[in-house]
Amino acid sequence: MRPREPRPRGRLSRAAAAIASNARNPDLRRAQLSFLGAWTAEWAFTVGLGIVAYRDAGATAVGLVGLLRMAPAAFVAPLLSPLADRGRRERLLIVVSTLRGVATAAAALVVGLSGPTYVVYLLAVLSTMAATLYRPAHSALLPSLCRSGYELASANVVRGLLDSTATLAGPLLAALLLELAGVTAVFAVASAASLWAALLLLGLRYDAPPRTAAPQDDGLLRSAATGIRAVRRNGDLALIMALAVAQTLTRGALTVLTVVVAIDLLDTGETGVGLLTAAIGAGAVLGSLAASLLVDTRSLGGWFAVGVALWGTPVVLIGLVPRQAAALGLLACVGVGNALIDLGGFTLLGRIAPDEVLARVFGVLESLVAVSMGVGAIVTSLAVDRVGVRPTLALVGALCPVCAALAWPRLRRMDRSIRVRDREIAMLQRVPMLGALPLPAIEQLARGLEPLEVPAGATVFDQGDVGDHYFVIESGAAEVVGDGSVITALGPGEGFGEIALLRRTARTAAVRATRALRLQALRAEHFLAAVQGFPPSATDARTTVDSMLDRFTPRSGVGEPPTAPPSGGTHD
Fold first, then answer.
1. Are 170 and 281 in contact (CB under 8 A)?
2. Is 169 helix (H, G, I), strand (E, B) or coil?
3. Neighbour tally for 141: CB within 10 Å
4. What's the gap between Cα 309 and its chain centre?
5. Do the Cβ atoms of 381 and 62 come closer than 8 Å?
6. Which of 362, 372, 469, 548 could be a cystine partner for 248, CB 3.0 to 4.6 Å?
7. CB-side neighbour CA atoms (13 Å) of 35
8. How far is Cα 30 from Cα 48, in angstroms, rounded to an integer?
């Protein structure tokens, strides 16, 4: 029988809990507020730069500047994102936020002194290159601050809400400053927001999950290629990237279309550019609040597809109803789509890609985003000049809905796979020494699980055998037998086999099935890498093993009769 969907009150409670979980966790709170500062700066700077370019040479200049900003960033993102996989990811975030703040401040100075426009463009390229590194490092950092898929989905919902808030606040702030003080003030405020984002991250305190060290001779180019290969070999990752390209082509097109629609089609002037962009942010805020109601659903792939479709359909309708009120409402729907993409797309990427290459995978994403935004901007500006605003709106808007419809079946298969993974993670987290692991580590363990069935009366392993696996009982029952005596009984959710792995000894006892067992087995290298690489889990494992060895002396040792280990422990 299919489970009933949670009632609205339950959904509201879960939404509140999702937001509260980020507020209670000081590291998540700092990371999320840093993102708010960084993206408020990005949106305000984008509006100000669009005005500079339009004053310089019209719509074509807006598109060309968009392409020139994104092309170098597309090269930098996959090349330098491996740095975030080699060390603590917040350090890279601090560096890039500081660099953005300095570059944006310099742009404010050039504009204020009526300096050459090309210098502003060069500084914009530098700022964008730094900004392109921010999101992959931040996206890869969030799973390390979480302990479950639900908590990661909550973090992505909250980040989506903050992203939406920045999408609203940045352009509105830019519109206000353009009205009162001009572009110089817009750039100055963007600089301050970037520097604030860097300061917040100085206070992060957390234990990083275990991560495979990169070879010493593995250069950045070769390391970056690892991320590209990870995407190419995984069809699910590749599909998410392809949909992201469609969405960001449209996003790049909108950097041109918001300017052209406001000034040429709606005749609302330069201030109207900020208002149209802010409408996307307003819709994104509402969409993020709605997405918080979906955080506990099992349809992230489905909602991701809906979000992609919403990036295009309203754009078509703007050309059919060229009125300011309609345009503001339709662009708000685009913002709702953005919120659903933040929930579905980023959570799926964080769950599917291995942690040791996670920043590189997000770096590939940012590279594709940068290229497609630049291409979308320049192609749209040329299309506006060749065929006009309304046909361009129709062509641009059709892309995302078509791509979302084609991807729907595979995205739903991803949802089913994630549900299975969540059950496996929940089973592993019931084991005391594994319960402390952060999400990336326990997700990696879940990927390495090997199912094993043992009939009643058969042994899983004998005393004295070589230890090469750790086992968790999914169903059934077993007993631990040492020197011919039953030590204890084991049931679902309990693990055994760690003593031989952690102490690198032979099995200190036998384990025999009393009822047919369904086990999940972990190879020694997977188990040890996770447990010994994460300090809290390693401490818990040592305490558990020492406690069991104090109570049980194997046959080759000095012989007291074995006694049962403490309740809830694991056994060998």
1. yes
2. helix
3. 28
4. 20
5. yes
6. 372
7. 25
8. 27
Please tell me whether residue 466 adopts helix, strand or coil conformation. Answer: strand
The SS3 call for residue 267 is coil
The widest CA-to-CA distance across the chain, in whole angstroms, is: 92
Give the separation between CA 379 and CA 468, rounded to whole angstroms.
Answer: 57
pTM of structure: 0.67
The structure tokens 């350090």 sit at: 91
- Report pLDDT digits (tens) over 278-287: 777 777 777 7
Q: What is the pLDDT of residues 61-115, one digit of tens each?
A: 776 776 677 667 667 766 766 676 676 788 888 988 999 899 999 988 888 888 8
Residue tagged 């305490």 (tokens):
543
Query: Is pLDDT at 134 greater than 80 in this prediction?
Result: yes
Q: Are 41 and 170 in contact (CB under 8 A)?
A: yes
Please report where in the chains the tokens 């086990």 appear, as a residue: 519
Residues 355-408 pLDDT 10s: 777 778 887 887 788 778 878 888 888 888 888 888 888 888 899 999 999 999
CA distance linking residue 78 with residue 223, whole number of Å? 9
**Beta-ladder partners of 521:** 450, 471
DSSP annotation of 298 reads S
Distance CA 31, CA 206 (A): 12
Q: Which domains does the chain have, with CATH numbers?
A: 18-201+221-425 (1.20.1250.20), 432-551 (2.60.120.10)
Q: Which residues contact 325 (CB under 8 A, 6 or more apart)?
A: none
Write down the residue that tokens 């809290």 correspond to. 536
d(CA 522, CA 512): 18
Calculate helix-pair angle for 89-112, 26-80, nearest 10 degrees.
80
Closest CA to 149 of 408, 349, 284: 349
Evaluate whether 327 touches 283 at the Cβ level (below 8 Å).
Answer: no
